[in-house]
Automatic annotation (TrEMBL):
The gene is 01C22_B. Its main location: other. The keyword Phosphoprotein does not apply. It is found in: Dynein axonemal particle. Residues 1-63 form the DUF4470 domain. Pfam families: DUF4470 (PF14737), DUF4471 (PF14740). Signal peptide: none annotated. It comes from the Eukaryota. Belongs to the DNAAF3 family. Residues 96-262 form the Dynein assembly factor 3 C-terminal domain. InterPro entries: DNAAF3, DNAAF3_C, DUF4470. This is Dynein assembly factor 3, axonemal homolog. Keywords: Cilium biogenesis/degradation, Cytoplasm.
Length: 264
């Protein structure tokens, strides 16, 4: 969706209606969050910071404190958007929720409100990841390193060789896909919460909603227009899937905002 919007300027002027159909309101809410972030102008933060912020929210179980504060602020804005279509049309006029039912909007409003109050006490992301990991692996949990190794070399590497084993293993173990040396993640990514409902003054949830096997690299980290990013020697990649995802999104966000080719 983002790539289509970013590269629309390369073709003759035409009008497009893109429909997002999903039976899970949590995923629709995340789509709104990520689209809202992608369509923001790079006035308050640079292009690189915007890209890394997007990748964190998209694929990391834990966030940097700055990204967590941004998510809380964006959630408050989304509450206003979901309850006031005119406000949404002012901020992101290219997005419409007219086709959604009112009960779905009410649920997403509760979900966004939970995001504003989500913290380690209400949404213990690491504990939920551990619980799902134990449940999915069963008796193989104690030998999970071997399971991750087998999944990568027998399944993943054949179709996604650009993904490095170290980053894939780190994601399977901790739920953190995108890492950089100068960053530290410690706050839960509350946008992964599922089954949120209000109970008095509190919000309760049923668990974690997200991928645990395939990894988020498949969306942006397998191919790149800059072929230098795809080089490898003896099966060892020069660049991680994280670096390729970052380069691809840098290009998309730049083209989306400036309507011209991204010059490396």
């Amino acid at each position: 969706l983002i790539k289509t919007l970013a590269q629309a300027y390369r073709h003759k002027r035409r009008y497009m209606n893109l429909f997002v159909v999903d039976g899970c309101p949590e995923l629709i809410a995340r789509q709104l969050l990520l689209l809202s972030l992608a369509l923001e102008r790079t006035t308050r933060c640079g292009l690189l910071e915007k890209t890394r912020r997007f990748l964190e929210i998209y694929g990391n179980l834990l966030l940097r404190p700055t990204t967590s504060r941004y998510l809380n602020g964006k959630a408050r804005q989304l509450v206003e958007m979901i309850t006031n279509p005119e406000y949404m049309s002012c901020l992101i006029p290219t997005v419409s929720i007219d086709q959604t039912k009112y009960r779905e909007r009410d649920y997403m409003e509760n979900l966004f409100n939970f995001w504003t109050t989500g913290n380690t006490n209400q949404f213990n992301a690491c504990e939920l990841w551990e619980h799902r990991l134990r449940h999915s692996l069963g008796v193989r949990y104690d030998n999970r390193a071997g399971v991750f190794d087998w999944d990568y070399h027998m399944r993943m590497k054949e179709v996604a060789s650009q993904i490095c084993f170290q980053e894939y293993k780190h994601f399977r173990e901790h739920g953190i896909a995108y890492t950089w040396l100068e960053t530290e993640v410690c706050r839960p990514n509350v946008s992964f919460a599922a089954g949120v409902y209000k109970c008095g003054d509190r919000y309760l949830h049923r668990g974690y909603l997200g991928d645990m096997v395939s990894s988020p690299y498949l969306a942006y980290g397998l191919d790149c227009e800059d072929k230098e990013m795809l080089k490898s020697t003896h099966g060892v990649n020069y660049k991680r899937a994280t670096d390729i995802s970052e380069r691809n999104l840098l290009r998309m966000f730049y083209e989306l905002e400036n309507r011209q080719a991204f010059d490396v």
